[in-house]
Every structure is written in structure tokens, then in C-alpha cells.
From TrEMBL:
Peptidase M12B domain residues: 1-103
Gene3D superfamilies linked: 3.40.1620.60, Collagenase (Catalytic Domain)
Domain of life (superkingdom): Eukaryota
Gene Ontology BP term (one): proteolysis
Gene source species: Amblyomma americanum (Lone star tick)
Phylogenetic classification of the source organism: Eukaryota, Metazoa, Ecdysozoa, Arthropoda, Chelicerata
PROSITE patterns, per the entry: ADAM_MEPRO (PS50215)
Catalytic residues identified in the record: 32
Residues that coordinate or bind Zn(2+): 31, 35, 41
Keywords in alphabetical order: Metal-binding, Zinc
Coiled-coil positions: none
GO molecular function, one term: metalloendopeptidase activity
Record's protein name: Peptidase M12B domain-containing protein
Amino acid sequence: LGYNNGICSSWFVALGEDKPGTFSGVDTFAHEVGHLLGASHDGEPADMRYPQRPGARNCPFAYGYLMSYLKRGAVSHHYSSCSLAQMKYIVSTQAASCWEVRATHTYNITRKYPGMTMNTTVYCQRLFAAKINVRADASSSFTSMCMVRCLYSEEATSNGQTSYKDVEALEYMKCGEQGQVCIQGTCAVPPKSWRIQE
């Protein structure tokens, strides 16, 4: 939940949920910040209260960009052209004082992405902690598409029946061959300065 156009106002607030240790709230965070910066859901018309602000009707919800709720692979990690135009418009209408950095504390960045900190089985176990016999299907062809197939049993009496759910891989989780990792939903060779330490 985020207030549309909330940036630089008393409505500068958003709410999301993250399951600790799974980084499941990263996309939610980006989606809600999009609202605060003026992006509506893809496919929605212009807000008549702001006649100059562009709408998102020309970017169908079904395409699965970040300002929809659909997961369509790599595009789900990017804002549509409509979202970018809306955010650009809202940002351009704000005073420079809105963007002034007032923080007095700096943080050290560890240069680690979530996928560098756990393998696919640990990731599945964290996502499906209430299930039993949780593991990742290492033979799945989905890995090269930055998807992880999590296998599990519903309960101890399930007669060995295994269920599965396909989930998006974390950023910098291993995929493909020759040191490739997932970067915004695409299996690619990472930039040299960000190579995974073995």
C-alpha cells in the first residue's frame, strides 16, 4: 500500500511485507515506491485530478511490468515506459528541497546480493518453512530462466507425494553455466567488479 504522488507531502508513506530471510519484499518495496513517485498501476487511465500527469493506459497490466501484480519474467523487475513517464512528471514538479539529503548517518555497503548468501535449497526451505522435505529441484530447466522449482510434501502422511511451486530466483543466485547469475530476472555473466567469490 502506497499513496500515489505521496512524495514530498504528508502522504509520503508506504507499507509492505517481507518474510525475514527470503527477501520477498524487494519487489513490493519497488512497487510501493513507484506509487509514491506517481506511478499508477499499468493499464489505468490518467488521474483527472492531475490533468497534466500522464496515465498508464498504453501499458497493459497483462505485460507484467513492476506496476502490475503479474510475474512475467525479467520485465517484472522493470518499470514500464508509462510508469517512468509518470514518475518523471511528478519529480519534475517538486521543489529541489524535496530531494535534499538530510541523513546524518552513512552505512557501509557489503556488496552482497541476496543470492550470494544462500543456495536454492536454503531459499526454498525459508519460503516454505511450514512444509516438510523441502528442497530445490537442481535438475530443473527453470534455473536458466532465473526460476527455482521448490519441491515439498504437505505433511508426513502424504505417502511420498511431492508438490512443487516455481518461484523467482534471488538477485545474483547462480544460474546457467560459466559463473552466470540472475540479474533482474535474466541469467547473465555479472560485471567483473561483482563476481561471486567461490
